[in-house]
Amino acid sequence: MNKELEVLMDILFLAAQGWLFYRLMIQVLGIQSSNWEKWRAYIMLAAPFGIYRMLIMYAEPVRKLIYGPETLIRNSRDTIGGVLLGCLILLVSGLCYSPKRGTEVTYLTLMYTAVCEILRFGVFCLTYLFPNLLFALLNRLLEQQEIGEKQYMFWAGIIQDGWQWLFFTMYLVCVFLTLRECVKYLVRAGRKPKGSELFYLMIPVAVSFGLGILLRSMWVFVLDDQMHLIFDNTPFLYVMIPGIAFCSVLLVVSGIRMRCRLIEEEEERFHHQVYQSQLEDMERYLRDLEGMQEGLKGMRHDMKNYAADIHALIRLMQTKRQKHVKEESIEGLPVGTEESIGGLPVGTEESIQKELIGYLGSMEHALDQFQVHEYTGNTVTDVIIHRFRQQAKSEGIRLECRFCFPQSLEIHPFDISIILNNAWNNAMEACKKLPVKERMVSLKGVQREGIFFLEMRNSIKRGSVKWEGSFPVSEKLQKEEHGLGLKNIARCVKKYGGYLECREEAGSFLLTILLQSSYPQ
After folding, report:
1. With 352 labelled, which of 123, 331, 499, 514 sits at a CA distance of 20 to 30 A?
2. Which residues pair with 220 in a beta bridge?
3. Range 42-66 burial, b when 16+ CB lie within 10 A, else e
């Protein structure tokens, strides 16, 4: 292969490697940009490493700096420093491109380097059998004088060039397939790795990286002034090294896949808890309606008795009036004589009127217990706010409510009920920890054009809220219920492309929610 073609092949190989690193970063970090920004990102991520590798291969001053005055690699251990420096250059490039996600960039860079390093040796062993067999055949033909030296050199060059293209192609394909699997499960996980997750993900990466460095330290060595490969005298390494390499890569992919599966199982458990919570909200709503219905049935059943009692009181008052008329027209009858009419005691007209008014008042009070006095614009939220008032009264909580259902927005009442019930439960738990005179909850819900604004504020003890990021940490004993209320709220907010904020200010906890119109996902 002439010099120009060799340089071109190295440039294409490094460009492909840079594209693999660029693709890994872009897909996992989820960076979306224009075509110009993508080219800029590719240059930023791939160019430094490519330039560094070209300088090592073709710049004499750089080779002298790394490999010594002779600029020859007489032992593969001499290349370990170059590999580590290349990894550092990739890491710096990644951090410059995404400085706010340093942990993820570091993991992705180390994973990429480890996969490339270990697969290089595995693919080399598999493809090296091809030129060895052909060279053995070529040597045999030369010994039998079936070909001349010029033909030998011609075919030897073709075999060497063909092997290099085969090696580079198989190597890039293996790296591409491995990174594709890693990207698939990293993206499917849906969130960046936490501390413990990152630790377990780094174990197979560290093992693969260490094995790659170990193989590199033994790959080429000098014996009797001749360079030898590690498997020259141990043919079984042709199979053993690829096996180790692909098992190491499988560990890396399996670790990422296992994390993804665990996150998906956690999400399934969370969704199960969400649906269970929604079912409880629905059951609570149905119980409220059922209680009102049963109360109204009881009142309807007793209406006959109520009507008979009222009729008896009215008859009593009419009889008393007639008696007074008779007393004025008939002499000798003592005034004020008490009689019994229809088995009912006779009292003064004034006392009967008071008794009748009190009876009607008692009926009105009994009916009020089964009447919802909330008018929010929706039956579901009417019942929910009515229950809030009853609970607040029984717990000694001062409730200030100004809530209007967004009728013109396409927001399902059930989603509003999930938000209200979970926010109210959290506010109730916080208020119960305070003296009765300090308990306060304020609820506001108003619509502004295509936005529904919801705010719930409740009193808390100053400094009692512990935070994890932008959300408070639950103090419930059951770990599976930690933060479930806010997660339910966040799920509904995300469904409508909304905004959720929690903050503590002036001895109160403030929950602010914005929901958009016609944005259900």
Report:
1. 331
2. 229
3. beebbebbbebbeebeeeeebbeeb
CA–CA gap between residue 106 and residue 450 (Å, rounded): 43
Bridge partners (DSSP) of residue 514 are: 453, 499
Residue where the block lists tokens 């993900």: 201
pLDDT digits (tens, 9 = 90+) for 191-224: 788 778 888 999 999 999 999 999 888 887 767 6
The sign one gets for the Cα dihedral 84, 90, 95, 96 is: positive
Q: Which amino acid is at 432?
A: K
Nearest-angstrom CA–CA distance, 43 and 289: 65
Q: What is the DSSP letter of 434?
A: S
More confident residue, 144 or 222: 144
Q: H/E element holding 515?
A: strand 508-516
- Neighbour-count burial of 406, counting CB atoms closer than 10 A to its CB (0-12 exposed, 13-18 middle, 19+ buried): buried
Q: How many CA atoms lie within 13 A of 362 on its CB side?
A: 10
Contact 377, 404 (CB under 8 A): yes
3-29 and 35-58 are packed helices; what angle lies between their axes, rounded to 10 degrees? 140
Is pLDDT of 33 > 50? yes
Residue 121 tokens, joined: 């040796």
Rounded to an integer, what distance in angstroms lies between the CA atom of residue 443 and that of residue 452?
A: 13
94 close to 108: Cβ distance less than 8 angstroms:
yes
CA 344 to chain centroid: 74
pLDDT digits (tens, 9 = 90+) for 78-88: 788 888 999 99
CB distance 418 to 285 below 8 Å: no
Residue in the structure block whose two tokens are 């090696």: 167
Q: Which residues 6+ apart lie within 8 Å of 41 measured at CB?
A: 22, 25, 26, 31, 33, 97
Measured between alpha carbons, how far is 214 from 193 in angstroms, rounded to an integer?
28
> Which one, of 185, 137, 235, 171, lies nearest residue 20 by Cα?
171
Identity of the residue numbered 521: Q
At 17, list the tokens.
Answer: 């490697």
- CA atoms of 201 and 192, how far apart (whole Å): 12
Instruction: Cite the beta strand spans of 408-507 per DSSP E.
Output: 440-448, 451-459, 467-468, 471-472, 499-505
CB count in 10 Å sphere of residue 460: 20
Please tell me the distance from the alpha carbon of residue 88 to that of residue 48, in angstroms, as a whole number.
Answer: 11
- Structure-token match 């009442």, residue found: 413
Sign, CA torsion 204/206/211/212: positive
Counting every residue written for the chain, the total comes to 521
22-36, 200-214, 313-327, 389-403: lowest mean pLDDT where? 313-327
> How large a percentage of the chain has pLDDT more than 70?
75
